[in-house]
Design a protein that fits this description.
The structure is a single chain. By secondary structure, the protein is of the alpha/beta class. It has an 8-stranded parallel beta barrel, surrounded by 8 helices. Strand 2, helix 4 and strand 3 form a beta-alpha-beta unit. Helix 3 runs parallel beside helix 4, helix 5 packs parallel to helix 7 and helix 7 crosses helix 8. About 17% of the residues have low confidence. The structure holds 5-iodo-2'-deoxyuridine-5'-monophosphate. 5-iodo-2'-deoxyuridine-5'-monophosphate (5IU) binds next to strand 8 and helix 12. One of its GO terms (molecular function) is orotidine-5'-phosphate decarboxylase activity.
Length: 362
């Protein structure tokens, strides 16, 4: 589909991968193409700001490695808010190493990204195997998750061979069945990092069906959202860094085209790009473009915000969404530094959504 097609029709196109489809549905129902970039340095700040802006966003972007006390509390808190307020999580880790290393960076260590973020991003400068390596790690994580969930649901009581069950009472929300995994150390380790996080309600859901839009008059829009969208599926996807917003960056046209080529070879795992314009050119391309470097002038001001003095270059939502065909605006300090972040997130949501509606001719 071309970028002038509606998000809804792109969600429902038969070849659209499930995570892309889910996100496009979420965006349509919430009327939000806003990703908030939560560049904060403590868990408390992250959870507080996620609560403040959650209602207005479709995606929350993290830099987990700048959170000084990142850990279980961060992950549980963020997943809880994401579930309640209805957004997906994107860890802006910018992976860029050989396949074997990025698999470990993605699934293990203190960040264990695959456990809690639906979306992660990577550079392709190491070559295309960075993508296939991550795709394979993600599908292992998904397989393990589904097997584990299935076991919890079907077996009810814990079995004696549970490896992580020394409490008296089993916690039904804990996936402790490493025994159910079809063996292999790698898989077992993914289960271990997952055990305290996944709950039964996050089971994978089938390809979504058409949906009505969310009524803005609803007394509880978030409850509405859940009823219409269904539970979030446990799926993982990758964004390729095809273009950057910073001055003098080295990602030239040839590099951007190479990203597109690699993405097309991995359509089920690569849901799109971090870029500055739409890259969809073939009829089959349904990649989402997420665009950082977006700011609105303050409410009291007019004109354009230019940069941050450290190389960042800003554009407005109308330009990137309406004229360049980007799908999702990524906004950090524009919202983070506002006095009333809830109101500011809502102002950005509206601006992003109006630019999108204009572009599709509404
Ligand atoms: N980010 C960019 N530009 C890029 C890429 C990522 O700004 O090209 I790739 C990140 C950096 C920061 C956020 O986390 O997006 C933008 O934050 P501000 O809206 O505060 O500038």
């Amino acid at each position: 589909p071309s970028w002038t097609a509606s998000f809804e029709s792109r969600a429902l196109a038969p070849a659209t991968p499930p995570l892309t489809s889910y996100l496009l549905r979420l965006m349509t129902i919430k009327k939000s193409n806003l990703c908030f970039s939560a560049d904060v340095t403590t868990t408390s700040e992250l959870l507080a700001v996620a609560e403040e802006v959650g209602q207005s966003i479709c995606l929350l972007k993290t830099h987990a490695d700048i959170i000084s006390d990142f850990g279980d509390r961060t992950v549980r808190g963020l997943r809880d808010i994401a579930k309640r307020k209805g957004f997906l999580v994107f860890e802006d880790r910018k992976l860029g190493d050989i396949g074997s290393t990025v698999q470990r960076q993605y699934t293990s260590g203190p960040l264990s990204i695959a456990k809690w973020a639906e979306i992660v991003n990577a550079h392709i400068f190491p070559g295309p195997s960075i993508v296939t390596a991550l795709a394979s790690a993600a599908s292992d994580a998904i397989a393990v998750y589904n097997t584990a969930v299935h076991t919890v649901i079907t077996s009810g009581e814990p079995s004696s061979s549970d490896t992580d069950n020394d409490q008296d009472k089993p916690d039904p929300n804990k996936l402790t069945r490493t025994i159910s995994v079809p063996s292999g150390e790698k898989k077992a380790s993914i289960v271990n990092i997952s055990t305290t996080i996944f709950t039964r309600t996050e089971r994978i859901s089938p390809q979504p069906t058409p949906f009505p839009s969310m009524s803005s008059a609803s007394p509880d829009p978030l409850k509405d959202l859940k009823a219409k969208l269904g539970p979030a599926p446990y799926l993982r996807g990758l964004l390729l860094l095809a273009q950057m917003s910073s001055e003098g960056n080295l990602l030239d046209e040839a590099y951007t085209n190479k990203c597109l080529e690699v993405a097309r070879e991995n359509r089920n795992f690569v849901l799109g790009f971090v870029a500055q314009r739409s890259l969809n050119t073939l009829p089959d391309d349904n990649f989402l473009v997420m665009t950082p470097g977006v700011q609105l002038p303050k409410d009291s001001e007019t004109g354009k915000v230019s940069g941050d003095g450290l190389g960042q270059q800003y554009n407005g939502p109308r330009h990137v969404v309406g004229e360049l065909g980007c799908d999702i605006i990524i906004v950090g300090r524009g919202i983070l530094n506002a006095k009333d972040r809830t109101a500011e997130a809502e102002r950005y949501r509206k601006a992003g959504w109006e630019a999108y509606e204009e572009r599709i001719g509404l």
